[in-house]
């Protein structure tokens, strides 16, 4: 392990505020942290150096149930780093609170949001999806109840009266949810879909 210095502490403070950064943002922040503390910046030289820098920070924060995790968007290959809470978050709680059929419905909603140009879904469309599910058809009333519960849990957000979207920070949700998938030997594609949604959000911000 290399020396843990003020550049690491400043980087961690920024991650605590931002929560998620693309690879290009990570490199810019690293340059800033090292320049601010007047130390050479070796962390941006190559992937191994960056990995060591992040590993040094993780060694300090893992005892507090936090970790900086690396991910790659399957949509465009964009790399990102997210500060995650290793304890179950709202989305992983969703996975343990709902049945397989209900989580299949949630995955379909996420898929529609990921494929839309606006990153949203109309409430009526969300309800119609429930009646068209293969082998796990849900009634409109059941779908309405599920959507209401997901809104209360923070798994979904209501933009306006009839429009739904996923909350910002779905990459963090994806990394949390991956812990649930690993523990329960599940890999149904939901994690990848969540990463796609967030990577598109990042792309819109960076190009705006």
Automatic annotation (TrEMBL):
Pfam families associated with the record: SMC_Nse1
Classification via InterPro entries: Nse1 (IPR011513), WH-like_DNA-bd_sf (IPR036388)
Subcellular location: Nucleus
Top-level EC class as recorded in UniProt: transferase
Top-level taxon: Eukaryota
Example of a GO MF term: ubiquitin protein ligase activity
Subunit description: Component of the Smc5-Smc6 complex.
Name listed for the protein in its UniProt record: Non-structural maintenance of chromosomes element 1 homolog
Species the sequence originates in: Ixodes scapularis (Black-legged tick)
